[in-house]
Amino acid sequence: xxxxxxxxxxxxxxxxxxxxxxxxxxxxxxxxxxxxxxxxxxxxxxxxxxxxxxxxxxxxxxxxxxxxxxxxxxxxxxxxxxxxxxxxxxxxxxxxxxxxxxxxxxxxxxxxxxxxxxxxxxxxxxxxxxxxxxxxxxxxxxxxxx
Length: 146
Known about the structure:
By secondary structure, the chain is mainly α. Helix content is 42%, strand content 5%.
């Protein structure tokens, strides 16, 4: 039976005296195995009663783990057919994208805006401390408010 190795591997991996609860350990282990490809998509997992019996834990422990992983999208339940790995979360080895070099300096529009701003000598940059851009101030609206 295909699900037998899963039960045996989980039984060997569970740490009964760990501060991490058994249900949390099951969630972590199954999530890790799905992510690294040890459990492929459409793999049938053991029934909750069978897994609970082989692990010597309560059925609710297994049900909690299955329900959590189902909520996260790692598992799917097919009515009358069992619980399966969805296969959506397998981590792929990705090659990093080549770094794109950005052009240095200002664009043509940026250069024209910079030239027209009329900053006092010695000040440069996008924001000059203490120098407001008064051409953008809404004088007309301000006069109506006074």
